[in-house]
Amino acid sequence: MNQICYLDNAATTQPAPQVINRMMTSFQTEYFNPSAMYEPGLKEEKRIQACKQHLGQRIHARGDMDQQIIYTSGGSEGDNMLIRGILDHMRPDVLRNGTIVTTVIEHPAVREIFQDYENQGVHVIWLPVDQEGLVSPQDLEKAVTDKTLLVSIMGVNNELGTAQPLEEFGRIIKSRQPNCFYHSDFVQGFMKFPIDVEKAQLDGLTLCGHKINGPKGIGAVYLRKGWPIKPLIFGGGQERGLRSGTENVQGIVGFDEAVRVWESDEVHQSMFRYRHYVEKTLTEALDRVKILGPHDEQSCSPAVMSVAIEGIRGEVLLHACEARQVYISTGSACSTHKKEKHQVQRAIGLSPSYTEGTIRISFSATTTFDDVKNGVKVIIEEAEKLRKFEKFIK
């Protein structure tokens, strides 16, 4: 087998041809500084504003997006900008006497921020999840009080594909504490699962370009107008002083083009087809297999799924597949070398025998059905070999 089968798109995606072409044009002819006072610079500024308006439309935000969309270097910076920006803007006594709320299955970019504040003495409430990775509305309702300062709940989990009911959670949070900042890391959900920041009453949303066939090094946050934050980066005053530094114009237009790629209904239909094929084929070919997370299309992203195969080690299967140029993962690329490994599996109560055999399979706009069929075939063959070897050594 000579063709590469890349099925680790939750880690990163291949830039789409349209994105590369758009960025190359920008590199060649749109290299001016958007802060420059002459006409070519002003054109770049207007180009950025147009990209912001387009981004705002995709999350159903209202108003002037130049006042509510801020471009960043990616998801991790976006999470830090919004969560730290809000909390560090508060008076120390308010922070000391308040509570902040998140879930036990957040991406490290959120989880480690909350751990840092917890180490500083801030009261953190860690919401549990059920076997599908869903947060209980009742648990959220108990957690939010008049002392709650901020709630951050990942919109789509980066390992399970579980999509939280953000609109329902927004009603709960705002009814109990209207002045609470409501944030969601939507890096894995953007353009893959519907989002309406107005209906969800979200105050902050984190997005990223390289998860949707855009370039690395570009992301964005939505910050509802009226919320003051303390900047992480000071300097020339770009982005209304909230994120200084010369704008990454080529990254911005590449991100915008990636959004356009994902606006196709065909992309979403293909991914649901891929997910259903993987689930059906693996469970029919192998016994002792569990598809983790929800199975209905209303509660999960079609782009990412985790499969637990009892009797093997996921890392060994990963490398066996790699030798045949099939690329999968065992979970979040950001947790590979950390002690938090398997945290999501433990949080949903998965038994150790299945936890060790968990792999993640994920798709993008450039994934083909041949990629999926060939990749699944190799996964099955290598899993069967590993199980035979397991019986032999026993």
Can you tell me about this structure?
This protein has 394 residues and is of the alpha/beta class. The chain folds into two domains: 139 residues, Aspartate Aminotransferase, domain 1; 246 residues, Type I PLP-dependent aspartate aminotransferase-like (Major domain) (Aspartate Aminotransferase, domain 2, 3-Layer(aba) Sandwich), CATH 3.40.640. The chain is built from 14 helices and twelve strands. The strands form three sheets. A seven-stranded mixed sheet has the order 2-8-7-6-5-3-4, with helices on both faces. A three-stranded antiparallel sheet has the order 9-10-12. Strands 1-11 form a two-stranded parallel sheet. Helix 8 links the parallel strand 6 and strand 7. Helix 1 runs antiparallel to helix 9 and helix 10 packs parallel to helix 14. The longest helix is centred in the last third of the chain and has 25 residues. It is globular and about 65 Å long. The two termini are 31 Å apart.
Topology, pairings included?
Elements: E1 5-6, H1 17-29, H2 39-58, E2 69-72, H3 75-88, H4 92-97, E3 99-103, H5 108-119, E4 123-127, H6 137-143, E5 148-152, H7 166-176, E6 181-185, H8 197-200, E7 204-208, E8 219-223, H9 249-262, H10 265-285, E9 289-291, E10 304-309, H11 314-322, E11 326-327, H12 343-347, H13 352-355, E12 358-362, H14 369-393
Parallel strand pairs: 1-11, 3-4, 3-5, 5-6, 6-7
Antiparallel strand pairs: 2-8, 7-8, 9-10, 10-12
Helix pairs in contact: 1-9, 2-9, 10-14, 11-14
